[in-house]
Amino acid sequence: MANLGIFVDMLFNAFTHTALLVFVAGFLYRLYEFKNTPQPLKIPQTPQATTASGVFARMAGDVLIFRSLSKGTKVLWITGWVFHFTFLILILRHLRYFVYPVPGWIVSLGDIALPLGVLMLIALIVLTLRRFTNERVAFVTNPADYFALLLIIGITVTGIMMKFEPFRPDIVAVKAFFYELFTLHGMFGALIFHPVHVPANLVFLTHLFLVLTLLVYFPFSKLMHAGGYFFSPTRNMVNNPRDVRHINPWDTATEEGNNG
Amino acid sequence: MADEKTTTDSPNDVVQKLVHFEKIKPKPAELTGEINTPCISKNASFDWKVQLLADKDQLNHLGYPADGLIPNWKEVFLKKMDEMLNKYRSVRLFMDICVRCGACTDKCHNFLGTGDPYNMPVARAELMRKVYRRYFTWPGKLFGSKLVDGVDLTEEVLALWHTYYYQCTECRRCSVFCPYGIDTAEITMAAREILNSVGLVQKYLHEIVFKAQTIGNNLGMIPDAVVNALEFVQDDLQEELEIEDIRIPIDEEGAEVLFVTPSADFFASPHIESLYGYAKVFYQAGISWTMSTKASEGGNFGLFIHNYEHMKKINSRIWEAAKELKVKRVIGGECGHMWRVLSSYSNTMFGPFDHLDPKYPRPQHICEFTLDLLNRGALKIDKSANDDVVVTMHDSCQVARGMEMGGHPEGQYDIPRGVIKGVCNRFVDMPQETIKERTYCCGAGQGLLGDDMMPIRVKGAMPRMQAYSAVKKSDGVNFLALICAICKAQLSKMLPTYGFAMEEAGGVHQLVAKAIVLGAKEGV
Question: Which helix (H) or strand (E) element contains residue B410?
Answer without folding.
Answer: none
